[in-house]
Amino acid sequence: MIFIWAFIVGGIICVVGQLLMDVGKLTPAHTMSTLVVTGAVLDGFGLYEPLIDFAGAGATVPITSFGNALVHGAMAEAEQNGLIGVITGIFEVTSAGISAAIIFGFLASLVFKPKG
């Protein structure tokens, strides 16, 4: 059943993003920023973790999870290290994902030839 909920929740997040671009006429960059901020705000209010517990990968794979990770890391480090922890927590939690995106993007550029 967890796979069905992951599919439904992830699909709803993607539909919201697509509606922002199609109906709201937002650019992909504005849509991505909106979804990241939405994930951050939901985590700030403590609503994103229950969504992750409910939907699993359906909530952790979309871009909203990046906003969640930013706030989650900042809050956790702020409790331990104070104000400076806000800055270090953001980089500590998200560094693995960003590094992976850079590495895999580079590897893909070696394998595939872009058009244009």
Automatic annotation (TrEMBL):
Residue stretches in coiled coil: none
InterPro entries listed in its UniProt record: Spore_V_AE, SpoVA
Source organism, top-level taxon: Bacteria
Transmembrane stretches, start-end: 6-24, 54-71, 83-112
Keywords: Membrane, Transmembrane, Transmembrane helix
Presence of the UniProt keyword Transmembrane helix in the record: yes
PANTHER family for the chain: STAGE V SPORULATION PROTEIN AC-RELATED, STAGE V SPORULATION PROTEIN AEB
Protein name, entry field: Stage V sporulation protein AE
The species this protein was found in: Alkalihalophilus pseudofirmus
Name of the encoding gene: spoVAE
